Backbone:
């Protein structure tokens, strides 16, 4: 029997350390180097990154909820890529499922506790900058956290990171540069993270546009905050699955989001796999 993993809600550092210990045991690797979180439609990327050493339910690491929202898997893979080990989360936990921000952040904190210095986050997003096209990948250059939540709320724990972390270069300029050296056409944009699960109203989309956002979605910001806090470098990529509410005139439907994601999956998979190979 593996030892119990503390509740990430109240003991985020100890929970991440315990899940990292389980990962080491299950994967046979004492450390991992790069973490990848695959959002809606990004999963085929995991088949292109190297040799899958183990794939297990996320719940086996402890600290993760059992359930997964439709369109998201709930497994992780440990992948050998050359001399590096990748930790790939095939789906993620969202705030809108009712989970505490520390539960949403648990994957990233476990990855950093396992040795990952780079965290790659992917998601599906609505695009609101004129000219954005459905199916287009966009590098996230910065975010506006409109979720009203933050995974650092609570007692300060220097083992996790500083009380007041700097967020100036949250989405590593170095990694964005590297990504563009691999794929020069990649545009950048600011991501507004909302709580969901409703899609935005057209008025909300106009609001986030006024605030300087180009993309809107319901994930990523919590994980980015936790990763930066823990000292990791973040590379984040949105797949524009739809034009944001009120822009295209179409109503938003999760099935359409998944269909666009599925149609772009192979291309996005190749993109992430290539990027990870260059990290
Ligand atoms: N809004 C929020 N989240 C999303 C969207 C959107 O338009 N598309 C995909 N995820």
Residues:
């Amino acid at each position: 029997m593996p030892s119990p993993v503390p509740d990430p809600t109240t003991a985020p550092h100890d929970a991440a350390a315990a899940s990292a210990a389980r990962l080491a045991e299950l994967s046979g690797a004492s450390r991992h180097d790069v973490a990848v979180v695959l959002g809606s439609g990004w999963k085929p990327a995991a088949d292109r990154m190297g040799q899958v050493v183990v794939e297990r339910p996320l719940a086996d690491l402890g600290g993760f909820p059992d359930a997964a929202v439709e369109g998201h898997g709930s497994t992780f893979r440990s992948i050998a890529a050359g001399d590096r080990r990748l930790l790939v989360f095939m789906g993620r936990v969202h705030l809108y499922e009712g989970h505490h921000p520390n539960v949403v952040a648990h994957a990233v904190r476990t990855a950093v506790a396992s040795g990952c210095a780079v965290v790659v986050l992917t998601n599906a997003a609505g695009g609101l900058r004129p000219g954005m096209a459905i199916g287009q990948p966009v590098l996230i250059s910065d975010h506006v956290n409109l979720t009203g939540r933050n995974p650092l709320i609570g007692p300060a724990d220097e083992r996790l990171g500083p009380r007041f972390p700097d967020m100036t270069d949250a989405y590593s300029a170095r990694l964005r540069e590297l990504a563009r050296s691999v794929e020069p056409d990649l545009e950048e944009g600011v991501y507004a993270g909302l709580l969901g699960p409703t899609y935005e109203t057209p008025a909300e989309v106009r609001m986030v546009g006024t605030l300087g956002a180009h993309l809107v979605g319901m994930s990523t910001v919590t994980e980015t905050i936790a990763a930066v806090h823990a000292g990791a470098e973040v590379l984040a990529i949105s797949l524009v699955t739809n034009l944001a509410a009120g822009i295209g005139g179409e109503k938003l439907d999760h099935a359409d989001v998944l269909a666009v994601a599925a149609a772009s999956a192979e291309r996005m998979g190749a993109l992430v796999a290539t990027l990870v190979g260059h990290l």
Observations:
- Residues 254-278 form the longest helix (25 residues).
- The chain has one domain: 12-278.
